[in-house]
Amino acid sequence: MKLRAIIVLVVVAAVLGVTLYAVNRPGPEEPVDPMPYVWDLDMDNLQHIEINMPKTGQSESFLLHEDRYFYFDVENGSIVDMDRWGGGIPLLLSGPGADRRLVINATDAQLAEYGFTQPNLAIELILKDGTVYNIEVGDSTPSGNTYYIRIKEERDIYTVDYTWYNVISRLVTEPPYPAANFVNEQLTVTPLEASVGQTITITADMVNSGALKGEYTVELKVNGYVEGTQTIELGRNERTIVVFQITKPAGKYSISVVGKTALLVVK
């Protein structure tokens, strides 16, 4: 009898354990909704980008050229600084992941409440097929960690991380101009055949083809050795003529100034 009682107790305990597990075991995890995108486009289809800051009146626009690089969309606009632009800017503008969707079908009062009456940013994206996206970025949230954002033609309001806003707004407040770029467009050696003791005049037509003002030291090299230097300062698209004068004994000399070369003969 004692053995039988023990067996019965064991069976009862096992049944209770199974029952308790069945009742208390965790259910299957509910699927987590993926982070929504405020908009979603192929960055390789971007053709034109315009970014306005209505509160300050500042703006910049960029146009994709045939070489597949973006340039400032002004007359003779320079290429953007690729160290800043890279592939990151088109990727960010192809559609940011929203922190959350805050309001569905917002009222006019809600749009005003979140800063869309006069947004911080108004962005126009034009694709190669002519499709246009108009995006508005309103005020920052009270925490300052996100900004309210929406597609202008729609009334859903999302929040986007402040770092996205900072990068895009900086394209206007600190445009991605390339550094100064000094080019020698023409080298002239007069005369190319000189007499011993005769003064030889060497000129270089220097231009700054970059977008920023800068300084550059122009070097005159004769047979690979530096024989003269001049430091110039030029703004964007400015040019100047740099002049060197030398005399040489009889011989042949390779004259080089900033990527251009000529052969001088002294007899």
Characterization of the model:
By secondary structure, this protein is of the alpha+beta class. The chain folds into two domains: 43-173, Immunoglobulin-like, CATH 2.60.40; 182-266, Immunoglobulin-like. 19% of the residues lie in helices and 41% in strands. The protein has five helices and 16 strands. The chain has helices at 2-24, 82-85, 88-93, 108-113, 162-173, and strands spanning 46-53, 58-64, 70-72, 100-103, 121-127, 132-140, 146-151, 157-161, 182-190, 193-194, 200-208, 214-222, 225-234, 239-246, 251-257, 260-266. The strands form three sheets. The chain has an eight-stranded antiparallel beta sheet with strand order 3-2-1-5-6-7-8-4, with helices on one face. A hairpin with a 5-residue loop joins strand 6 and strand 7 (146-151). It is rod-shaped, with a radius of gyration of 34 Å.
CATH architectural designation of the largest domain: Sandwich
Q: What kind of sheet is the major sheet?
A: 8 strands, antiparallel
The percentage helix is 10-25%
| Oligomerization state | single chain
SSE string, helices as H and strands as E: HEEEHHEHEEEEHEEEEEEEE
* Count of DSSP-assigned helices: 5
The count of strands amounts to 16
Structural class: alpha+beta
Gyration radius from CA atoms, angstroms: 34 Å
CATH topology type of the largest domain: Immunoglobulin-like
Q: CA-to-CA gap between the ends?
A: 132 Å
